[in-house]
């Protein structure tokens, strides 16, 4: 995520031992670690006891009244015998069935749907939980957040760290990734854009249902749909399928400018591949909304942008496809692994295009920094500061300094190995720190403590990349 005109605080609120590159392999989907919940930052998010494999979301949305109804089937695998379990959902629930059998349910609060199946769920046996629901998402709030972004002609479900609960039931924590099929029904004159590949579109009477599929594991907050009047451009560039969309509410001139900017995504993605390894997904693109969210978001495969995004913004959100999407945080406290990495890639891209060098940027940022940069532990900033400017700036500086300490060659190997090992899964700051020591062969404990955890600026010495 990158907020503009500047990043603001959240609204309201070892790997070691293996020495060769070939010794590491990305985990298979069924080898992913169990969800790590509750998260101390947001203890209501996510639910222990099961692992979601797939979401089949089928929502109908009325643009004028902003009424949403739907049925979502959640395929989950219990990690233990469960007599009850919970899902995160703000909407009103009409019925729940578990493997086709009606189940008892209650909303213990606005956020938690507690389900009691007719028979306890057996450990390790996949089950399908079908939830039918309805409501007006724009009237719903949770934890001081009102996240529904819509007008009478357009809707985009984009926000972080919370968005899923406004439009489908889920295990709403980044540590429980799943695959998605998303079907959205709305007036046939509207376009619908979502994650992954568009499977098809069917029209019946005055309504149309558009089906999108995300075959790579994805966290719940990165799932999205947009519906409205969009100009669409799709095709292939540099070996990747792309699907770009710009809101027609912006006007013809802005539409043209927006599409021209989104076309740069392919070139930027190719540069990122050279730095980080293969693009982790099957398709790419972007969407520019007219709804003035005030930020861009790295929705998996297809980031969403406010009007008139800059090249810097594109680099940031596309870098997130590796850092944040493919490699997701295991805990919200590790958010610097997303935002610091994306910030660093902005700086590197500018350098690669003949602009200011990364070393110069680091030196200038260090010399001009104020107390705001050092009065926070970015490896554990707290729930109300996960989008603090220091998380981005100091996170990017940490990586630039690390490159100076271990050298460009080892640093490049580190980033590529990080993605190769954890792609499709989740990771923590401690795992990155351990991997950096493994790749470089250096003791970096003092370095990481100073850059990530200390409450004062690191010493201006070579040991700290300065």
From TrEMBL:
Query: What keywords is this UniProt entry annotated with?
Result: Hydrolase, Metal-binding, Metalloprotease, Protease, Signal, Zinc
Q: In the Enzyme Commission scheme, what number(s) does this protein have?
A: 3.4.11.2
> Aminopeptidase N-like N-terminal domain: from which residue to which, for each copy?
63-222
State the CDD domains in the record. M1_APN_like
Which cofactors must be present for this protein to function? Zn(2+)
Catalytic activity entry: Release of an N-terminal amino acid, Xaa-|-Yaa- from a peptide, amide or arylamide. Xaa is preferably Ala, but may be most amino acids including Pro (slow action). When a terminal hydrophobic residue is followed by a prolyl residue, the two may be released as an intact Xaa-Pro dipeptide
- Can you supply a Gene Ontology BP term from the record? proteolysis
The leader peptide range reads 1-25
An MF annotation (GO) of this entry: metallopeptidase activity
The top EC class is hydrolase
Query: Pfam family example for this protein?
Result: Peptidase_M1_N
Known Gene3D superfamilies for this protein?
Neutral Protease Domain 2 (1.10.390.10), tricorn interacting facor f3 domain (2.60.40.1730)
Q: Where is the Peptidase M1 membrane alanine aminopeptidase domain?
A: 295-451
Family listed: Belongs to the peptidase M1 family.
Q: What is this protein called?
A: Aminopeptidase N
What is the protein's species of origin? Nocardioides silvaticus
UniProt lineage: Bacteria, Bacillati, Actinomycetota, Actinomycetes, Propionibacteriales
């Amino acid at each position: 995520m990158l907020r503009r005109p500047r990043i603001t605080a959240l609204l309201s609120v070892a790997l070691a031992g293996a020495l060769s590159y070939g010794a590491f392999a990305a985990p298979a989907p069924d080898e992913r670690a169990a969800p790590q919940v509750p998260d101390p930052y947001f203890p209501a998010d996510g639910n222990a006891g099961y692992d979601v494999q797939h979401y089949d979301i089928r929502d109908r949305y009325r643009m004028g009244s902003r009424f949403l109804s739907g049925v979502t089937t959640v395929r989950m695998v219990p990690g233990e015998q469960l007599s009850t379990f919970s899902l995160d959902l703000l909407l009103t629930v009409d019925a729940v069935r578990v493997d086709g059998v009606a189940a008892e349910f209650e909303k213990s609060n606005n956020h938690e749907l507690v389900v009691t199946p007719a028979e306890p769920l057996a450990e390790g046996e996949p089950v399908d939980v079908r939830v039918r629901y309805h409501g007006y998402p724009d009237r719903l709030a949770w934890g001081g957040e009102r996240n529904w972004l819509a007008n009478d002609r357009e809707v985009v479900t984009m926000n972080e760290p919370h968005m899923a609960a406004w439009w489908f039931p889920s295990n709403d924590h980044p540590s429980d990734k799943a695959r998605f099929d998303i079907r959205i029904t709305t007036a046939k004159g509207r376009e619908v854009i979502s994650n992954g590949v568009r499977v098809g579109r069917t029209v019946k009477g005055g309504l149309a249902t558009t089906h999108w599929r995300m075959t790579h594991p994805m966290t719940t907050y990165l799932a999205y749909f947009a519906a409205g009047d969009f100009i669409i451009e799709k095709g292939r560039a540099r070996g990747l399928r792309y699907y770009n969309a710009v809101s027609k509410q912006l006007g013809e001139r802005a539409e043209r400018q927006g599409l021209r900017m989104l076309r740069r995504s392919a070139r930027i993605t190719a540069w990122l591949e050279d730095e980080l390894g293969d693009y982790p997904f099957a398709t790419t693109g972007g969407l520019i909304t007219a709804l003035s969210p005030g930020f861009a978001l790295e929705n998996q495969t297809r980031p969403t942008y406010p009007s008139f995004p800059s090249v810097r913004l594109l680099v940031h959100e596309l870098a997130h496809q590796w850092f944040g999407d493919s490699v997701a945080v295991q805990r919200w406290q590790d958010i610097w692994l997303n935002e610091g990495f994306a910030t660093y890639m902005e700086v590197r891209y500018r350098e690669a295009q003949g602009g200011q060098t990364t070393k110069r940027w680091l030196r200038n940022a260090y010399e001009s920094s104020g107390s705001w940069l050092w009065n926070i532990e970015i490896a554990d900033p707290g729930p109300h500061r996960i989008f603090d400017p220091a998380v981005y700036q100091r996170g990017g500086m940490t990586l630039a300094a690390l490159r100076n300490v271990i050298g460009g060659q080892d640093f490049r190997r580190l980033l590529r190995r990080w993605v190769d090992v954890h792609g499709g899964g989740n990771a923590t700051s401690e795992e990155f720190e351990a991997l950096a020591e493994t790749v470089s062969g250096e003791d970096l404990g003092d370095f990481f403590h100073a850059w990530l955890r200390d409450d004062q600026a690191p010493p201006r010495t070579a040991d700290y990349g300065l």
